[in-house]
Amino acid sequence: MSTECDVKKLVRSPSGLRMLPENRAFTSPFCLEEPHWVPDRECPRCMHCEAKFDFINRKHHCRRCGKCFCDKCCSKKVPLPRMCFVDPVRQCGECSVISQKEMEFYDRQLKVLMDGATFSVTQGSCEKSETMVCRLSNNHRYLFLDGESHYELEVAQISTVQILTEGFTPGGGNSRATGMLLQYKAPGSDYLKQMKFTTSDDFNSNKKMSASWLAAMHKAAKLLYESREQ
Ligand SMILES: [Zn+2]
Ligand SMILES: [Zn+2]
C-alpha cells in the first residue's frame, strides 16, 4: 500500500503538460484538481478589468481558477506544482500571488517534512511515550514513524493538526513550536485517534530541526484543508 516506487506519466492537458502518478490513488494529498474553464460564450469581457474581447483583445483562461481574462490581466506564467504542471503556466493576478506563496512550501518545507525530525510520541491517553523519527513519505501520502515500533499514518486520514507552542503572546509574538496534536481516522474504524508529538530532550534529537518540522507541518495542514474544501 505505501509503496514508494510510484510510477509517473506525462499527460497533456489543454492547460499544459502534467506529470501524474499512473495510479490515481497515489496522487499527492497536496494536489488540486484542474478547474473547469468558464465557457467562452459566458465571458464576453475580461473578468478583472472588464475589457471587451474581440479578435485583437483575445481571452485567456487562468490555469488555476479557470476564469477568463485579457492578456494584460493574465500574463504571468507561474509554477503550479499543486496541479502537477511541469512548466510554469498562465495565471491571473490573484492566483499567481497564491501560487508564488505556495512555492515556498514546495521549495523548502516539503523537503523538511521528508527529511524528518525526532519527537517524543504518545498515543491517545497512553502515559508512555516513545522517541520516534517522523517523516513524510516521498509520495507525500504517509507519515512514517520509526522508533522501536513503526507506524504509517495516511495523510488523507488526518483530520486535525494542532500545533502546540510555548512563549505564546496574544498578538502572535515570539512563539516557538514545541509539539503537535494529530487526530486521524484509523483504518477500519470510525473513531478518531489522537497522537501527541513533543520535541524531546533526547540526546539524538535536534530541537531546532523538530521545530522547523512542526512549522512545515503547520503549513502543510493549511494546504490540506484548503484542498478538502474544494
Ligand atoms: Zn483584463
Ligand atoms: Zn486565476
From TrEMBL:
PROSITE patterns: ZF_FYVE. It comes from the Eukaryota. Residues 40-100 form the FYVE-type domain. PANTHER family: ARRESTIN DOMAIN-CONTAINING PROTEIN D, ZINC FINGER FYVE DOMAIN-CONTAINING PROTEIN 21. One of its GO terms (molecular function) is zinc ion binding. InterPro entries: FYVE-type_Zinc_Finger (IPR052113), ZFYVE21_C (IPR032031), ZFYVE21_C_sf (IPR038632), Znf_FYVE (IPR000306), Znf_FYVE-rel (IPR017455), Znf_FYVE_PHD (IPR011011), Znf_RING/FYVE/PHD (IPR013083). This is Zinc finger FYVE domain-containing 21 isoform X2. Keywords: Metal-binding, Zinc, Zinc-finger. Transmembrane segments: none annotated.
